[in-house]
Write a structure and sequence with these properties.
The chain is an all-alpha fold. About 70% of the residues lie in helices and about 5% in strands.
């Protein structure tokens, strides 16, 4: 059924298949996904609460971590409730505008998360390379402006995705062979030339991720040079320890994100079931791992989560 009064004749709804090829196992696969979602929600809310209530944590590192936790809450909640409804209750129908909203939140907040990781790398660079000037360089005002710029970039650069798709005609096929609405998956249902959409999607992906990874890489090269120049082995170990959590979070975000992005566009020889199985938990992996990593690796947060814990940070 197509909506009337719209020259682009968009459909009223789409159908999300869940995990094609594993229909008999979908019900059970939902349990670990549901457990991961609970960990993501509880963990990130706990991190936000700890940072909000402990004024000693109102420093750039923890303010960026709070934004990361907020971003993870939005990113995981934009996909998981609907995904679990599909896998457990076969609620495969999703309204057209709800689908576009999901596309927007997934891509916008993935961009925001990448930007936050870049900002955190800059914070680590200043903290390690210019420790005496850290508080004067990364003032609360500078942190707020950087966070605002990261947020606005994600929201503004991704908005054209939804606008361009909303003006295009769709084919009769309304089936999306996965558990959430992703830009490329929706674009494949369009009955028109989508080269401009694809080009813009590649431009946004490579400009955002390319810029952020470049800044992160340069920051860590400078950090490495500074750390290796320290005279004390203990000082070098402590400096590396301050960056370990951030490096783990970077890997948890970029590895599944880049795999999903590249296989969607270039992985034509990757078995479909492998792509689907790995794509389903992709928006959930970083939000689940990030609070665990920071609780384990950050003494200030660990002591609040586990009162009486006196372990020394590596």
């Amino acid at each position: 059924m197509l909506a009337s009064g719209n020259s682009s004749s968009h459909p009223v709804s789409f159908f999300l298949l869940g995990i094609p090829g594993l229909e008999n196992s979908q019900f059970w696969i939902a349990f670990p996904l549901g457990a991961m979602y609970v960990v993501a929600i509880v963990g990130n809310i706990a991190v936000l609460h700890i940072i909000r209530t402990d004024h000693t944590l109102h420093e750039p590192m923890y303010l960026f971590l709070a934004m990361l936790a907020f971003t993870d809450l939005v990113l995981s909640s934009s996909t998981q409730p609907k995904m679990l409804a599909i896998l457990w209750f076969h609620a495969r129908k999703i309204e057209y505008h709800a689908c576009l909203i999901q596309v927007f939140f997934i891509h916008a907040f993935s961009s925001v998360e990448s930007g936050v990781l870049m900002a955190m790398a800059l914070d680590r660079y200043v903290a390690v390379c210019f420790p005496l000037q850290h508080s004067s360089i990364l003032t609360p005002s500078a942190v707020f402006k950087l966070e605002a710029a990261v947020m606005m970039r994600g929201l503004l650069w991704v908005s054209p995705f939804c606008f361009m798709v909303s003006t295009m005609p769709f084919c009769p096929n309304r089936v999306i062979p996965q558990s959430y609405c992703e830009h490329m998956a929706v674009l494949k249902l369009v009955c028109a030339d989508t080269r401009v959409n694809r080009a813009y999607g590649l431009f946004v992906a490579f400009s955002v991720v390319g810029f952020d990874i470049t800044v992160i890489s340069i920051s860590y090269v400078m950090i490495l040079r500074t750390v290796l120049g320290l005279p004390s082995g203990e000082a070098r170990l402590k400096a590396f320890g301050t960056c370990a959590s951030h490096i783990c979070v970077i890997l948890a975000f970029y590895i599944p994100a880049l795999f999903t992005f590249l296989t969607h566009r270039f992985g034509h020889h990757v078995p479909r079931v492998i792509h689907i199985v790995l794509a389903n938990p992709y928006p959930l992996v970083p939000p689940t791992l990030n609070p665990i990593i920071y609780v384990v690796r950050t003494k200030q947060i660990r002591d609040r989560v586990i009162p009486g814990c006196c372990g020394k940070d590596p």
